[in-house]
Amino acid sequence: MTTTGAPTSRTRLAHLDGLKVVLVAWVIGGHALLGYSAVGGWAYDEVREVTFAPGVEIGLVAVLGPSGLFVIGLFFFVAGLLTEGAVHRHGPARYVRDRLVRLGLPWLLSALLIWPASVWVAAVSAGEQVSPWWVFTHRDPFLDAGSLWFALVLLVFSIAFAGWTVLRGGHPAPSGALGGGHVAGAAVAIAVATVVVRLAFPARSGQIADLHLWQWPQCLGMFLLGVAAARRGWAVHIPDPIRRACSWITVGVLVALPVVAVASGLHDVARDDGPYLGGWTWQAAATAAVEALLVTCGSIALVGLAERRLHRTGPRARRWSRAAFAAFVVQGPVLMVAATALRPLPAPAEVKAPVVAVVAILVCFWLGGLWSDAARRRRGDRRASAAEGDARDGLL
User: Fold this and answer.
1) Residue 303 burial by Cβ neighbours in a 10 Å radius (0-12, 13-18, 19+)
2) Residue 235: which residues within 8 A CB-CB, separation 6 or more?
3) Per the domain annotation, does 8 fall within a domain?
4) Does some domain include residue 9?
């Protein structure tokens, strides 16, 4: 099957819809686990009442940790696959207005109100005597929006791409095939840029608005790779040789990663991770190389797998897909409230974390479905159908 050019019709790409649902559920579940992790990475870890046993923590890092190295890049890759077609359909001006509403407004509400309030609820439940205003003004980084930092960064990239389209005077036609050499080149460029950026902004460092600048090489590189891939029809079908090669590379890296990590001296992730986060260390360079391999090959492999496996188009699949964006938006307060509600329960983290994960995923998608249904009723069936088409103008 050979296709060229970015998709421009409203025909839904069912496998990307399905992948979107899986990714959002995975992120919500991952944040639930991080809230009880010694490594941290989710705000509830600042007030957690229990944490995983060291052996369990190492097992989770080995099994689930690698996905944290590339899942955000996968979001940006899929967004890149869909962006140019959206700009072509709507025009740059309308596209930017839509992105400001769909991405900018949720980020603003989360940064100014929803996320500070969620953190305050958790802090008060832990016995801290703080006000909502104190939490807002003392969050580090300032204007922390929780998981919606992703929306702000994607908004920046989307607006920049729309502006570039205007300057170029249209969409250039694809020139030549996109092959394994291009994917390898993208991985090298992402790895080198990551090393350089993390000299100034180590991994997990905070910047105003929680911009995750240390992750921008991965995010921007995968966004641009997605744009280039869409011009060769990869949003519809990833060439089988590329998909197979990327799948084998991803599996190989995932199998080797825990062994290499332990051999390099990483026995306690919370204690020993410093050299891996950035700076002039071989560990930081190796981390950047592993991330780059996983984010390029892993993203392509997973989109290819979704193309082969996630192609349901029934009412239930469409409902879950429509609910995914709102589920991503509301995950912060839902996760914090769920963890806070379980706080008095005398149970270990190994029990609480999975319960919070399952409850949060179900509640987030339930709320997302309610929001989607309300939007469809408000707009009417015709406009709702159009909005549903617009929903694939980016992963979120």
Assistant:
1) buried
2) 6, 7, 13, 16, 81, 82, 85, 229
3) no
4) no
In whole angstroms, how far apart are CA 362 and each of 172, 279, 368? 43, 40, 10
DSSP type of residue 282:
H
Q: What is the pLDDT of residues 363-378, one digit of tens each?
A: 999 999 998 888 777 7
Residue type, 272: D
Which pLDDT score is estimated for 3?
45
Measured CA angle at 180 (ends 175, 183), to 5 deg: 80
Cα gap 250→297, rounded to integer Å: 6
Residues contacting residue 85 through CB under 8 Å, at least 6 positions apart: 6, 7, 8, 230, 235, 393
**Out of 7-11, 222-226, 362-366, which region has the weakest mean confidence (pLDDT)?**
7-11
Q: Is residue 6 part of a domain?
A: no
Q: Which two tokens stand for residue 195?
A: 């090393």
Rounded Cα distance, 321 and 313, in Å: 10
CB 161 within 8 A of CB 173: no
* Under 8 Å between Cβ of 30 and 68: yes
The answer to whether position 256 is within a domain reads yes
Domain residues for the domain of 382 are 14-390
Q: Quote the pLDDT of residue 5.
A: 52
Interhelix angle 315-342/349-379, rounded to 10 degrees, is 130
Domain count, the chain: 1
> What does the DSSP assignment read for 323-342?
HHHHHHHHHHHHHHHHHHHH
- Residue 11 pLDDT exceeds 80: no
3-state SS assignment for residue 391: coil
How far from chain centre, in Å, is Cα 381?
A: 30
120, 130 contact by CB (below 8 A): yes
Select the more confidently predicted residue: 148 or 1: 148
C-alpha triplet 286, 289, 290: angle, nearest 5°:
85
Cα separation of 188 and 393, whole Å?
A: 28
